[in-house]
Amino acid sequence: MSGQAHERLGHDDLALQALASAAQLSRQNSKPVSLSGYILGRAGRTAEARHVLNTLKTTADRYVPPYALALVHAGLGDEDALFESLERAYRERDVHLMFLPVDPKWDPYREDPRFAALLAQGGFTATER
Length: 129
Description:
By secondary structure, the chain is mainly α. It has one domain: Alpha Horseshoe (Serine Threonine Protein Phosphatase 5, Tetratricopeptide repeat). The protein contains seven helices and no strands.
């Protein structure tokens, strides 16, 4: 998805535009919505990021992976809520956890013992990047 590429390159405005389009075309799929929340939170646009988080939490007509919530919490720097969501993702066997060892969005949390414990619990090995 182009939104992911723009985010990785640091082009937040282009990423947010692409993600808004992807969300609209996918009927608000949690992947582009949560990545938008992550970018907004990381950019200091906390009110907008919290709005995204609330939208994801109150989506009653579809499943929202806990990983999606964790990603928005990561953007906001809310570590306790982030780890609560990741632990729930593990309990629910959220397939998105496979990205934990390699996705650079999780780099700020790699030194946290909770992150290492989650990787070990999931059977992941840390990778050098």
